[in-house]
Amino acid sequence: MPRSLQTPTAHEKDIHDPLATLRTKFHIPADTIYFDGNSLGLLSETVQTRVADTMAEQWGNDVITSWNKHNWINLPLTVGDKIARLIGAPEGTTLCCDSTSLNLFKVLCAALDINHGRTEVLSTEDNFPTDLYMVQGLQQLLGERCTLRLVPEQELLAAINENTAAVLATEVNFRTGRKLPLAELSAKAKAQGALTIVDLAHSAGAFPVALLQHDIDFAIGCTYKYLNAGPGAPAFLYVAPKHLESSRKPMQPLFGWLGHAEPFAFSVDYAPAKGIRQFLTGTPPILALAAVDAALDIFADIDMADIRKKSIGLSEYWLACMADEGLLEIMPSISPDKAEERGSQLAFEHEHAYAICQALIAEGIIADFRAPNYLRIGFSALYNTYGEVQQAVSSLATIMHERRYENEAFQQRNTVT
Amino acid sequence: MPRSLQTPTAHEKDIHDPLATLRTKFHIPADTIYFDGNSLGLLSETVQTRVADTMAEQWGNDVITSWNKHNWINLPLTVGDKIARLIGAPEGTTLCCDSTSLNLFKVLCAALDINHGRTEVLSTEDNFPTDLYMVQGLQQLLGERCTLRLVPEQELLAAINENTAAVLATEVNFRTGRKLPLAELSAKAKAQGALTIVDLAHSAGAFPVALLQHDIDFAIGCTYKYLNAGPGAPAFLYVAPKHLESSRKPMQPLFGWLGHAEPFAFSVDYAPAKGIRQFLTGTPPILALAAVDAALDIFADIDMADIRKKSIGLSEYWLACMADEGLLEIMPSISPDKAEERGSQLAFEHEHAYAICQALIAEGIIADFRAPNYLRIGFSALYNTYGEVQQAVSSLATIMHERRYENEAFQQRNTVT
């Protein structure tokens, strides 16, 4: 179990942390230091209470009348607007619905349709696989009307050309934590007549995002990482106002009844709702949306700039502690050196990264492993402390010096890694 | 509020109801008689407790390790297997995931691909709109590779011909409650080389379904009606074993990472998982799936034949009570006369059906309205009683005799009807 000792430095930093009280809103598992908020954010009292109330009061007591009485019918939009505030999007441009993969399918179709004549989706070789798979799936369906070109991440901007229909980029690389420069990406795409689709999975809730300011065309993202909305919680999608305003036919092909202009007229022919609502598909999952809604309320009074500041503080302190312990030589960072070029995570390379991660977990320190050989540390400014950083790195040092990763028990692979 | 009086007949029927004790598992809203289980089933203690535990124990305490420890990763399959038991499907053929609309998109693509060379999806004019919209969406995407032909429900079987790629039918009509003969539908389709896609939205949990026996190719359905899994709960999809076994390439184009053969290898190229798992897309919504899982546990020891028997008992008694009150002349049934030709609902036509429904709701009797002028009554064998039927019809008689539907307050339309 993690020791409760803390260096004076860590203690000092925690005392002066303006976000420190937020930690009390979360359920910190007993004897655990949690640095995996970039995979699954922690449960908060706010979410727990809201979901329980939504079940007991809304579903339990008001049942079907809740679609009106508790405005369930508009929940994907009202929750979407709360997400919008965190990603620099205006009201009425963001929905909370379906999964990131499915939302990507919708905006891919929309982008290829707007930029018809071009077929190429340009992305990076180490983009998160599900994003690439969704393009490959669309390719299977559309044949030559959709092509996928992959380039190394560092060549992405230079690779955009007059054939590119859409650039598909995850802002923060899920392995390295490298943060792409959205302003430059957008400018380069615009100059070549390409549209931009940005996956904000590791961005939303982690630092300020400025979609409208950077003139991004489409964005998608998930709510179960830095937004702490629960395992597999509904995802989000954003469509730039200019596209919503100029559309004259359905923008995407998943014509669910809740994207219809008049769902309760039950007419035979599809007619898309105006604006972002046409990106809705089936009946929204209310319990899950209530969890997202509550999780977002925690961000209501927070300036995302403060989140970013603390996130950088935690990660820089992690690196300093590792340097002090002499660990950076034996498990080098694969993340950018400059804090402003990173998201809210660090990753380290070691041939025994999997076993090292398991050894940490055995000590109550939750990080995660990403193939082929990376140890990934995610920092949540809402609940992580400098003291935790110091303790976790100290445990990591012990594990490395004692070569605990040679223990066979730590080398056995789980289904989910 | 509903009166608590009960005729001796109703009382007698309730005493002899072998499923009577199941009602205690559900949260019956105070002063309410609920005949809208075909729109949104009631909350049970089982679901409430499971969701609370999944939040507190699994997400809250075990956090990310729950993907292995609590087998979250396989939940869409294990819940799918529980649904399979209710719809006459073998293990490993049914998934609980996404929405009914999205699952329809997947199986539509699979059917058109298997039956390549044919383009026609044949359905009924009064199929539930979202089913028709999804075909129209696919049509927008694929152009002439997908066409939709609609015929009146009574002409469906005769309309299947050698051009039909797939017949898309909802087993129980959402307005009239008419139950299509799946055995005949399947036989006719097979004879013409057409595949069958059946929407079980109003079937699953309402009566026995025999998908494998009837050689149905694909099925989809929802869990928030007769399965009581909560508003907008994840839907299901079924693929016949013969198709799963013979597939040599990805069967559907929504290539999410959890449908990959090795999702945690994070490889660049999509390779479908074997069997039904390839119909998975993004990360599954665990809280919502836990609700479905628990809701299905209520069915574990129940014979679906008993559910069907009580469902028919309740609806026949409803009709008898209406006949006694002389109501069938003024608001005739649009449902089939023969109980075996109906699902678990009745519907009545009246020009003031909307206001009548509102007047019932004002009495604590929840039914629903469907455009243009139908009052719809859904029967759940798990929690409805004969006493409730008697009281509801008695209140309906009062409303009709006093012409309360002329009250302006009852004529104002809500967003969701």
UniProtKB/TrEMBL annotation, chains A, B:
<dbReference type="InterPro" id="IPR015421">
    <property type="entry name" value="PyrdxlP-dep_Trfase_major"/>
</dbReference>
<comment type="subunit">
    <text>Homodimer.</text>
</comment>
<comment type="similarity">
    <text>Belongs to the kynureninase family.</text>
</comment>
<dbReference type="GO" id="GO:0030429">
    <property type="term" value="F:kynureninase activity"/>
</dbReference>
<comment type="function">
    <text>Catalyzes the cleavage of L-kynurenine (L-Kyn) and L-3-hydroxykynurenine (L-3OHKyn) into anthranilic acid (AA) and 3-hydroxyanthranilic acid (3-OHAA), respectively.</text>
</comment>
<dbReference type="InterPro" id="IPR015422">
    <property type="entry name" value="PyrdxlP-dep_Trfase_small"/>
</dbReference>
<comment type="pathway">
    <text>Cofactor biosynthesis; NAD(+) biosynthesis; quinolinate from L-kynurenine: step 2/3.</text>
</comment>
<dbReference type="GO" id="GO:0030170">
    <property type="term" value="F:pyridoxal phosphate binding"/>
</dbReference>
<dbReference type="GO" id="GO:0097053">
    <property type="term" value="P:L-kynurenine catabolic process"/>
</dbReference>
<keyword id="KW-0663">Pyridoxal phosphate</keyword>
<dbReference type="GO" id="GO:0043420">
    <property type="term" value="P:anthranilate metabolic process"/>
</dbReference>
<dbReference type="InterPro" id="IPR010111">
    <property type="entry name" value="Kynureninase"/>
</dbReference>
<keyword id="KW-0662">Pyridine nucleotide biosynthesis</keyword>
<dbReference type="GO" id="GO:0019441">
    <property type="term" value="P:L-tryptophan catabolic process to kynurenine"/>
</dbReference>
<protein>
    <recommendedName>
        <fullName>Kynureninase</fullName>
        <ecNumber>3.7.1.3</ecNumber>
    </recommendedName>
</protein>
<dbReference type="Pfam" id="PF22580">
    <property type="entry name" value="KYNU_C"/>
</dbReference>
<dbReference type="InterPro" id="IPR015424">
    <property type="entry name" value="PyrdxlP-dep_Trfase"/>
</dbReference>
<comment type="pathway">
    <text>Amino-acid degradation; L-kynurenine degradation; L-alanine and anthranilate from L-kynurenine: step 1/1.</text>
</comment>
<keyword id="KW-0378">Hydrolase</keyword>
<dbReference type="GO" id="GO:0005737">
    <property type="term" value="C:cytoplasm"/>
</dbReference>
<dbReference type="GO" id="GO:0009435">
    <property type="term" value="P:NAD+ biosynthetic process"/>
</dbReference>
